[in-house]
Amino acid sequence: MFLLLIGFGFAVTGGISWIVYLNIMTFGSNVAGYLLFMSSRLEGYFLIGGVVFIILAIFLPHKRGE
Hints:
Layout: H1 2-20, H2 31-39, H3 42-59
Helix pairs in contact: 1-3
């Protein structure tokens, strides 16, 4: 349960960062430049890491009652 909540928090933080940095596109940058910029930012990896955490939390078995 804890991994799911951490993953959700990371995914929300990363998703908001991806949306906020979309403003770069209005300054004449193209999609390749945007993706290159996002790959250099730490916040860009929060979305990917959060989704991985959520998938692990869903598919990894856990013991109840411990």
